[in-house]
Amino acid sequence: MKGARKTKDLLYEQVARIGKVFSSPKRLELIELLCQGEKTVEILAREAAISVKLASAHLRELRTAHLVATERQGKNICYRLADKSVAELWVQIHTLAEERLIELQMALQKIAARPDDLVPSDRASLMKAARKGEVVVLDVRPTEEYLAAHLPFARSIPLNELRQRLAELPKDRSIVAYCRGPYCLMAADAVELLKREGYEAIHLRDGVAEWGLVASRQE
Amino acid sequence: MKGARKTKDLLYEQVARIGKVFSSPKRLELIELLCQGEKTVEILAREAAISVKLASAHLRELRTAHLVATERQGKNICYRLADKSVAELWVQIHTLAEERLIELQMALQKIAARPDDLVPSDRASLMKAARKGEVVVLDVRPTEEYLAAHLPFARSIPLNELRQRLAELPKDRSIVAYCRGPYCLMAADAVELLKREGYEAIHLRDGVAEWGLVASRQE
DNA sequence: TGTATATTCCAACATTTAATGGATTGAAGG
DNA sequence: CCTTCAATCCATTAAATGTTGGAATATACA
Question: Does residue A117 carry a pLDDT above 60?
Answer without folding.
Answer: no
